[in-house]
Amino acid sequence: MTAEAGGRKPEVAGRATPPASGFRLPAGSLVIQTSFLGDVVLTTPLLAELASRGPVDVVVTPQAAPLLANHPAVRDVIVFDKRGGDNGIAALWRFARSLRTRADGSPRGTTVAYMAQGSWRSAALALFAGIPERVGFDTSAGKLLYTRRAKYHGDLHHAERLWRLAVGDAATSVPEVIRPRLFPGDQERAAVDALLKDVPRDGAQLFALAPGSIWGTKRWPHFPALASRLAPLYRLVVIGGAEDDSLAAEIARSAGPERVVNATGKLSLLASAELLSRCAGLATNDSAPQHLASAAGTPTLSIFGPTAPKFGFGPLAPRHATIGNETLTCRPCHPHGPQTCPLGHWKCMRELEAEQVSLALNTLLLP
Ligand code: SF4
Question: What is the three-state SS of 251-262?
């Protein structure tokens, strides 16, 4: 399924290079990014860079596609349901062949594919689609099918790693260039207005909490205690999916229901970014909301347990900080975070107290 871009789009922010002066044929790019939602957000600096060279189309999962709505760098958002209707070799072949043309039957004109997700399947998609140049990381599973292998810099932020697929290793990065960007539209603004319509206008600023994560050990358990500290200062909004509703209820019990807006399961990802743009700050686990806040420019404190910022997935908002239990020798213990602690004590999160996190927030939010 292809979602064609429509209407006037906002300007692209964060390009590394201005459009080339003088004539050159536009290079059509296809970015294949079928990883987690956060990875899609972190791909947007790459998209902005490529948009300065020609049209950019993106292949994403059905869950991630709405994130890129209104994005001025993207011409077509192409949905690849790798675990559903597009699963299997025959479906992969059919989907790849369909990439040659746009929804209106005109040639797509892709000359370069960027494998932001490194599986053999992504590489095969680009190969079967007949895209002559295929670029990805030298550590990726699909690298044998690439025509150019870029060095995977383990010491860089992932947003910068992805951006360097287009610009190479010699380019100089600046924070605003590798900061992700999303573009909530009227629909998202209306959804947030509706969510907040009954919130008393008493002058209290909004502050967001994101207590969820699909990885069990990444869920810091002291959000309710932090909420009771913050409630006298802010009106709290809890963001996340419908599965985080019970975490929001715990927070409301601790902070007082009148001080808490439960937004879990009520907003799309893009609307959550809009809500974050209206907040004074965010306290979050190492999960997708920190990337939404990076795009929204919201001051962010990210709490790390079994993972670490050095993996390259920390916050990128202009004001941000991270916190973790630095005394433990067992952390980080897993690239994503296991569902349960392999040592059984889960000290990385349990022993990180609300008071420490509250102090870190005070420092972050100092004017
Ligand atoms: S092994 Fe250490 S870092 Fe990993 S979950 Fe347990 S306490 Fe956390």
Answer: HHHHHCHHHEEE
CA of 9 to the centre of ligand 1 (A): 45
Domain boundary among 178, 196, 230: 178
Q: Which residues pair with 264 in a beta bridge?
A: none
Q: Percentage of the chain surpassing pLDDT 90?
A: 87
More confident residue, 9 or 177: 177
Q: What is the pLDDT of residues 287-309, one digit of tens each?
A: 999 999 999 999 999 999 999 99
* Residue identifier of the C-alpha nearest atom 7 of ligand 1: 346
Among 239, 235, 233, smallest CA distance to 211 is for 239
| 3-class DSSP assignment, residue 11 | coil
CATH number for position 229: 3.40.50.2000
Out of 10-24, 68-82, 183-197, 268-282, pick the least confident: 10-24
Q: Using the mean position of ligand 1's atoms as its centre, give its distance from the Cα of residue 224 in Å.
A: 21
348 CB within 6 A, ligand 1? yes
SS3 83: coil
pLDDT at 201: 84
pLDDT for residue 88: 85
Question: Are the C-beta atoms of 268 and 286 separated by less than 8 Å?
Answer: no
Per-residue CA distances from 169 to 20, 153, 161, 163 (Å): 20, 9, 9, 10
Nearest ligand 1 atom to alpha carbon 331: 3
DSSP tag of 10? P
Rounded distance, CA 345 to CA 325, Å? 13
Among residues 164, 210, 181, 200, the alpha carbon closest in space to that of 302 is found at: 210
Task: Report how many domains make up the chain.
Answer: 2
- Greater model confidence, 90 or 8: 90
Return the SS3 of 97. helix
pTM, two decimals, is 0.90
Domain containing residue 334 = 186-365
